[in-house]
Specification:
Strand 3 and strand 4 form a beta hairpin. This protein folds into three domains: 214 residues, Sandwich (Jelly Rolls), CATH 2.60.120.200; 85 residues, Immunoglobulins (Immunoglobulin-like, Sandwich); 45 residues, no CATH class. The strands form four sheets. Strands 1, 3, 4, 6, 11, 12, 13 and 15 form an eight-stranded antiparallel beta sheet that branches. It contains two helices and 23 strands. 7% of the residues lie in helices and 40% in strands. The protein is mostly beta strands. The protein is globular. The structure holds calcium ion (3 copies). One calcium ion binds next to loops.
Length: 397
């Protein structure tokens, strides 16, 4: 049942501005004026786009917004469009760093950020060697205060990108960080989820000073293979300045009847000023962050693995300095647990499918579909669940 938005902003007051020592809010529909930028290495402006590297040339390039540092500890959201043409090079990255407004890492596989200390890079790696994650991929790379590296060892989280990523013309990326979690969206679909707290990332003290003061920008690299790696437009908004104003939900969606073991994504994208707080609720109780839930305090929440007990009514609360509101309830129904062969019945045929998992014990090789309490094991506890499902025989509507 969809109940929609049931209340609007409860309390509105005049905008309260608290200025940190750094902060950045800007929008570039194109790059006809780059006076606020530091362009380093191979990077130049061609036809009003930021050409990080150019087809036919190897090496590294970077573009940093240098008017101010961003203040990222309270969160940020950035949207940019990119275009890769005339070849396929190593890839590019969106980078936060507290090294220098002239920072530049290595070319080729380093993608322009490998070598920059005090940096966090969200890399879009389009040239894959045998010792790397397979296929084009997005990954969050950092070595804390040490010079960064694109090696898989230093990845906090990664995800495979579609094969068309580098050939589809202009595409849009959104990166949103809320303390605790960073999401990457490709063409409005969430593709990467990374547990991350920038305020406590450095082992030897915070990576970025003050409120998380960092230069933000892009880097790219090319080697034997080259391409035009272009940034076409760029919006950036951190929450260093507290603002008031109405919030509105832009999107609220939950999965349709997930199966046991699925990774499910619930999202409620919110428009409006911040910093904003978010809280997912299930059956009127706050969902706690951790365990199988990532993003309980963010706009996107991932439940992995989903289990039958996760079925229920999900609602979402959001707020900023001015007040808050709740967004109505969407129901998540679990696909008939116990019906392993998906014929609408829980019977002996499912028991035959259950047995090998029960014998294998650990997921995998045991099937995640049989781990009904989500503890990574298919054991006696799950057997007791199965008996309960078996006794009902017919899946409910
Ligand atoms: Ca690579
Ligand atoms: Ca069945
Ligand atoms: Ca289990």
């Amino acid at each position: 049942m969809r109940t929609g938005v049931y209340s609007i902003v409860l309390a509105m007051s005049a905008g309260a501005a608290a200025f940190g020592q750094c902060g950045a809010v800007f929008q570039f529909a194109d790059f006809s004026d780059t006076s606020g930028f530091s362009l380093v290495g191979r990077t130049e402006v061609v036809n009003d786009v930021l050409r990080l590297t150019k087809s036919g040339e190897d090496g590294a390039g970077a573009a940093w917004f240098k008017t101010t540092q961003a203040g990222v500890n309270a969160g940020f959201v950035t949207t940019f469009r990119f275009n890769i043409s005339d070849g396929e090079a190593d890839g590019f990255a969106f980078v936060l760093q507290a090294d220098s407004e002239e920072a530049l890492g290595g070319g080729g596989s380093d993608m322009g950020f490998g070598g920059i200390p005090r940096s966090v890079a969200i890399e879009f790696d389009t040239f894959v060697f045998s010792d790397e994650f397979p296929g084009p991929h997005v990954s969050v790379q950092t070595r804390g205060i040490e010079p960064n590296s694109p090696e898989d060892t230093y990845s906090l989280a990664h995800a495979t990108l579609p094969e068309w990523f580098a050939h589809a013309g202009t595409l849009e990326i959104k990166i949103e960080y809320t303390p605790g979690v960073l999401f990457v969206f490709l063409e409005n679909e969430p593709v990467l989820f990374c547990p991350l707290d920038l305020g406590t990332l450095g082992e030897d003290g915070p990576l970025f000073g003050g409120d998380g003061c960092a230069w933000v920008g892009f880097t790219a690299g090319a080697g034997g293979a080259t391409a035009n790696q272009d940034i076409v437009s760029w919006n950036f908004n951190d929450w260093s300045t507290t603002e008031c104003g109405p919030l509105s939900p832009a999107d609220f969606s939950v999965p349709y009847m997930p199966k046991t073991g699925d990774r499910v994504v619930l999202r409620c994208i919110v428009d409006g000023p911040g910093p904003r707080t978010y809280q997912w609720r299930k059956d009127e109780i706050n969902v706690e962050e951790g365990g199988r839930n990532l993003g309980a305090l963010a706009e996107v929440m991932v439940i992995d693995p989903f289990i039958p007990a996760d079925a229920g009514g999900y609602s979402f609360n959001t707020g900023n300095q001015c007040g808050g509101f709740g967004i109505g309830t969407l129901h998540v129904q679990a696909y008939c647990p116990g019906d392993l062969n998906e014929d609408g019945l829980v019977d002996d045929a499912d028991f035959v499918e259950f047995l090998p998992s029960y014998n294998a014990l650990v997921v995998p090789d045991a099937s995640k579909r049989c781990d009904w309490n989500g503890d990574g094991l298919v054991d006696d506890t799950d057997f007791v669940f199965f008996v309960g499902y078996y006794n009902t025989l017919l899946c409910e509507e």
